[in-house]
Design goal:
The structure is a single chain. The chain contains 11 helices and 16 strands. It has helices at about 1-5, 10-15, 20-35, 55-60, 65-75, 90-100, 110-115, 145-150, 175-185, 225-240, 285-310; strands at about 5-10, 40, 45, 85, 105-110, 125-130, 130-135, 140, 155-160, 165, 170, 190-195, 205-210, 215-220, 240-245, 270-275. By secondary structure, the chain is α/β, with parallel strands linked by helices.
Length: about 325
Amino acid sequence: MVRANGAVSLRELARVVQTSEVTVRRDVRALEAEGLLDRRHGGAVLPGGFTRESGFPQKSHLATAEKTAVADLAAGFVEEGEAIVVGAGTTTQELARRLARVPGLTVVTNSLLVAQALAHANRVEVVMTGGTLRGSNYALVGSGAEQSLQGLRVSKAFLSGSGLTAERGLSTSNMLSASVDRALVQAAAEVVVLADHSKLGTDTMFQTVPTDVITRLVTDEPPAHDDRCATELQALADQGVQIAVAGASGGATGSSGASGGESVPARQQRRDVPLPGPRRQVPGAAAGLRSAAAMSDQNAGAERARVADLRRR
């Protein structure tokens, strides 16, 4: 499976061979010792340092439950009437299916799969970039795609990729795809990365979004015993990335109504991991706190003076 797909999650391996993840993890360690594959957080890849990119047919069958959970949760971050950009990928395609019933939404995308998922949504406007079609992932790339994004401004960008690390951020295996993703990021006020846990700790050739540009990561619940995955999430949080984690049981479920019988997640069902410290401070926040403290002292002084005056009387 790893040779055919380039990468595979432990959950997928366990499902295919009908055994536990603990057993699969032990077998993966043995295969790594023989040089047949490399372990990654929550999965395995072909040996050689950087993972190669799989085609759409292979990607569409990888970590399907995890992608569904991530897409369910990510849809809850989209408001009615927003203008957003959605990049190419199988996870963003799942997100698009859940956005089909968001009223007044405008979606700018370079992905034919995203556009197809929204094609019959009556209250969603879809804007396609220009560019050259890249058949392996049905995305428009090249200078035409990048130029069509110039001057664009939207509230959020939803992107996926081949790997995510705290050190380099989001990355992909194709130079043209990376260049368009960077243009999508430039158009957005906030950047939301969609990545299931198997992509955490995986590094690929071309950086698309540096860690300090990522506003939020939406991911699925990693295995409880996966310490390396937990360490990577903590490292991302330490750098100011807000982490939203979908539950292991398949993520949030809420009121129905999305296209094709999909469900739109209830906003209160997502779980944000608290950050160790703020990265993006609100201007004047410290001054506001100092002013509030000074006002409190003044009020206390006035109250003491009033009590003393009453006693004198």
